Amino acid sequence: MWLQQRLKGLPGLLSSSWARRLLIGLLLFLIFYWYLGAERRGRFFSGSVMPGGAAGQCLLAEIHRWKSLVDRGEGIYSTPQDKLDTPFVSGNGHILIDIDSNKLWVASSSQPGSAPVHQTEYSPRVGIHLEGKRVEAQATMLWFRKGAVLSVRCASSAALQSARDCVTIREEFIAHRSRPNVYLQRIHISNPSDKAASLDVFYDNPAFGSKFSTSVEKLEDREVVLSSGRVPVENNRMVLVVVVSKKVNSRLQVPAKVEHTDNILSVVWTSEPIEPSKLEETFSTLRDGAKKELGELLRANVDELVVDHQQAWMDLSISGVEMRKITDSHTPSSRTVNTTLYYILSSSMAPLLDRRLSGEERIRLESSLKYADHCFSGHATMHAENLWPERVSSAAQILQLVTLWTLTLQKRGCKVLVAAGAHGAMQGMVLSFGGLQFTENHLQFQADPDVLHNSYALRGIHYNQDLINLAVLLDGEGKPFLHVSVKPQEKPVKLYACEAGCLNEPVELTSEVKGHTFPVMVTQPITPLLYISTDLRHLQDLRHTLHLKSILAHEEHMANSSSTTNTVAPVLSPSSGARSPAKLKMPATPAMLPELQGSHTFNLLAAWEPLTWKSASFSAAVY
Question: Where is the region Disordered (predicted)?
């Protein structure tokens, strides 16, 4: 009876428009709630719920420690919910460790420009398995600035409800940057539960018919695992590979409320391509050398080895590309740029970081970085999607990318940089990204003026003893301008710069933190947007050799790109104290070329935080 009365009153209730809207909204919400499903609902409302109950919540707390690094562009991570189709690798040009596929890649030459292009049948990762029926959740991070792969696993029994009692296994994988033969796997196991945790530790045995074999040998007072094998190459030759690793116990007990750490050091020695007849002799040499190096490492402080590795990667990271604002789909994202740079550096040898490098050779390589004449010739690579690919899905694709970059740099006047190894590769990629080129007397920035709607910075450009930052920035109205800063030096070397056309007097670049700004001017015919040189007279003379038809402010060029109107800069009085991008429309004649002075230094702190040079401290902790 009660229900009948309520149903009779329903048409009257629905006659109200607000009631109809409320009912429709409720129905849509129920449909949406049903569509999400239980797992999706958790992610939608909490933002980041992981599967696996307590293990998932434990993992969520672990990867929260990585978030600040990822937000700063220092790494990327993959989780069960946000799985990246990206190879997680650590390398130094001599070896490349593919963590996901558990494969070792090696180079067959120690010459800069070579890459670890040979995949072996050796599995470098030591496996760790927690005994018993467990629910596990795992995440992996690629740490660009420290040249490492981090892995974390959280495990709990099915009955466990609290994430605080999960067993956590953290691992760090490092192909040492300044010790090209060294690979390190760091392990940290935390057992906060009330029960002891038992773990199996194992090496992957070579498959039947594999070209690799493994044995246990003595090294001084301890046992080591020696693995050896061969990789066939062309002309019926082979590359011999010997890996000597610290032996660990096959079973591990971690008592309740205890943390356990271990460091598994490995040394990888490889040969040049050899004939089969030299197999025994070469194997003996590689085995003895690898065992000797491992013996030295086992006596060293592992934390110091890690700090050396991190410092070497920070040294490489002095140079780089920073994406600040992207306004189109054709420009690579920060993640694409950082990942590409990391993959190329991980696959490039760094002779300048090798302790065995002679003093004479070091001086030669360092001088090649200071002024790479003719590099980079041609248009900027910023929009070359094959050089800055959004997706790389395997180690093999990484090595194809390395080959393409090496070929591109060599053909574009950067052979001396390629010969300098990873430092040179980084320098060449930075120069190429924005269209920077060294000539006999100056460094010129020849970016396409039609694509300056993106904001980015090129960091750590070597010019003699100095390091230069060059940024393309946008003002409050979206108009581009250039910002240049110089790293302070103990022995300052004077640098001068002028914008397109060099109509204004060149300005001396100082080490002021706020740097120097330059308007973007566009000439006809098109010439570089900026010139930098140590020779003031050269820049003063340059204006008379460009033979320009016109010069426009960037916004005028964009508005009148289809017109043929000739324009020239107005004569600014010396008292104006600034370089104005506004230009007068009048025929250009040699007599009108001004020789005026102005200041490039403006306080941009309110609009833009300038690039600064900071020292970094390093931690030897796992992470």
Answer: 559-584
